[in-house]
Amino acid sequence: MSGENFFTTMLLYTIGFTKKTAEEFFDGIKYRAVQILIDVRLNNTSQLMGFTKRRDMKYFLDRLCNCEYQHKPEYAPTKNILDNYKRDKITWEDYERKYKALMKRRKAIDDFMMYFDFYDSVCLLCSEPTPEHCHRRLFAEMIHAQLPGTEIIHI
Length: 155
What we know:
Blueprint: E1 10-16, H1 22-31, E2 36-39, H2 54-65, E3 68-71, H3 79-86, H4 92-106, H5 108-112, E4 121-126, H6 135-146, E5 150-154
Parallel strand pairs: 1-4, 1-5, 2-3, 2-4
């Protein structure tokens, strides 16, 4: 499927793992027939991440959901931007502006578009339980702006 086909709806899911059980998380992916999950976290190896650590995630997605996995930290904010927001040194509006500028410098949206050449349903993974103050929502909205045929669904 080509990312340039504006007449077909591309499904772009987003999901956070915090406050979800493994059952809720993987059933959400499987039920929606997500073909590839893109991990947009800076770090995916901490013991605190439980079932969402890189090696475990890849295994579980394949076995339970027939879903591929890729870690793309270049779609994440820098550690500095994230830390400044978490420590209340910058507002959400500052975070949003800095994140969007970073994604433009990295040409992240252009890079991401290739996924829609191969997949009909893609899911962005981060840790935040809801999308309101998470970069996965910002990234999804940037993709939608570039490809209006994209339907964003937050799991």
